Amino acid sequence: MLNDRARVFYFVVPQPVKVRKYKVDKNSLIECLKSHKRYSNKEIALIMNLPVTKVEHWFRTDQFWAVPDEDSWFELKALLQITTTDFDSCITEFEYRNGVYDKSERIYLTDFIAPCLTTESATEKFLVRKG
Q1: Beta strand segments in 8-66, E
Q2: What is the pLDDT of residue 1?
Q3: In the prediction, which pLDDT does 2 show?
Q4: Which residues partner with 127 through β-bridges?
Q5: Minimal CA–CA distance to 37: which of 77, 66, 69, 70?
C-alpha cells in the first residue's frame, strides 16, 4: 500500500521571465551591423573585452545568430559608428511576464518522491527543509 511519501508533491510558483518589448528585425539589424563593420570579430572582442565567440554570433546569418545584449549594444554602436536609433528600443527594452513553461514553475518537496535530475532537467527547483 502506498503512503503519501510515495507520491510526487510540488507547488506551482509562477516565474517571471525577461522578454524583449519589441520584435527585432533580424535582417535589417544584420545588414546594419555588417555594413558598419570596420574591425574583425577578434578586434571587436578585444576592444569590448568580450569573448570572440559572443561577438561572432552578432554577425552570423544562420540559425545561430544572436541579438547583441543590452549591456553591449551602445558600446558596439559607438565602436562601429552606427548613428541610427532604429534598433535601440528593440535591443535594450524588456518587460517581465509570467513564464509559460509548466515545468519551470514547479518547486518540488524533498521529503517526497521528486523527478530524477539529468542534464536536461538541471533547472529543477527543490524546497529543502532546514533543521
Answers
A1: 10-12, 16-20
A2: 41
A3: 45
A4: 109
A5: 77
109 CB burial (10 A radius; 0-12, 13-18, 19+): middle
Q: Are β-strands 125-127 and 94-98 bridged in parallel, bridged antiparallel, or unpaired?
A: unpaired
* H-run or E-run covering 117: none
Domain-by-domain residue ranges, the chain? 4-16+99-127, 22-92
Tell me the pLDDT tens digit for each residue of 10-42. Answer: 666 667 888 999 999 999 999 999 999 999 999
Name every residue whose Cβ is closer than 8 Å to that of residue 35 and which is 6 or more positions away in sequence. none
| DSSP string computed for 50-90 | --HHHHHHHT--STT--PPPTTTHHHHHHHTT----TTHHH
Is residue 7 very low, low, confident or very high in pLDDT (cuts 50, 70, 90)?
low
| CA angle (96 as vertex; 93, 102 as ends), nearest 5 | 140
By three-state DSSP, how is residue 108 classified? Answer: strand
